[in-house]
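Per reviewer request, we include the raw input and output of the structure prediction for the construct analysed in the revised manuscript.
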Amino acid sequence: MSDAITPELLLHGYSVGIFPMAEHRDDPEIFWVDPRRRGVMPLDGFHISRSLARAMRRCDWKVTVDHDFEGVVDGCADRADTWINPEIRCLYSALHDRQQAHSLELWEGSSLIGGVYGVTLGAAFFGESMFSRRTNASKIALACLVDRLRQGGFLLFDTQFLTDHLASLGGIEITRAAYHALLERAIAAPASFLGPAVAGPQVVIQRRTHTS
């Protein structure tokens, strides 16, 4: 099955509400997932606690966009149990080359300490995975991502599944039918991931210009 998956087929899968996974990093087979209940992050419902807001004000981490896409994917795969196999990594790198997959990175000096990546279609952002090497790094990355999606005109932030971590930040779970209704509206609308965005206090935005 995985031999037939191309970047075009991957995008088509997202457009009809499914996404790919592998059982583990060494499994060459890729399968499609279509959850009965879907995790989404309402862009007007992201919850920033007082402690997180305080951490964002005090931190001097740097935020970049599309500066180290492969580094973020590798950071997400750097765990004991991962569904990111070599073919999935190559597929998303190909989408990144076409500016249809993007990453947001957090840096402490020259060290990549957290990030998130996903796919864009119209005004839909499909969050694939995130990682954190410092306390609050994944929360701050998500806060910056939500801000970017809001300002870019996005209508849907798909998180695929709802974890306790995402629920604590405002994530919810909806039915498959409700998700498809949101998806249909979102992929037909325009949005821009690479447009200007405002970060929280003391967080610097740097964006590397995409080159083919």
